[in-house]
Amino acid sequence: MAPGILWVAPAGDYLPQLLHWQHFPTLSCLPVSTSPALLHLHFKVDEDLLIGRWGYQPAQAELASAYEQLSEAVLAYQARRWLLDIRQRTMPDPYTMQWLFDEFYPDLAQQLGSLRVAYLVGPSLRGLIEAGPDFQPLAWYAGKPFIVNFFGDEATARTWLFDD
Prior knowledge:
The chain is an alpha/beta fold. It folds into two domains: 1-35, no CATH class; 36-161, 2-Layer Sandwich (Transcription Regulator spoIIAA). It is 33% helix and 23% strand. The chain is built from four helices and seven strands. The strands form two sheets. A five-stranded mixed beta sheet has the order 3-4-5-6-7, with helices on both faces. Strand 4, helix 1 (60-77) and strand 5 form a beta-alpha-beta unit. The N and C termini lie far apart (50 Å).
């Protein structure tokens, strides 16, 4: 690497950026973003599984672009099984929940043929979700092209995703 150049790859960004020290003449160190990415997506080809990990509780305004990113990845990989880790989120958004179940999941399931979504959640968030007006027990999904379930641990979620 050339002198005076630092290779920086921010969390969640796979394309490194080149920064010249001359751009920061009065700093003793480079500024580094400590904000986590909202949504990290990874497709495991060997398992045919899309994994999404939410980095924090988003503001309502941030959700549209995150779900657009998720939708693009799902369609690009034809991912019918998703493991979504929302343990960093603290509360469900009723508007988003309704939209997910009325439009997002059915639309993607129609395009893919079927869809299984396993959410990893913490105990308090799981309680809020299950007490919410949009929560559906597993029996509700019978005959639907998609099914959503909530889990406290990843191993159980992965087992359920492939138990079809």
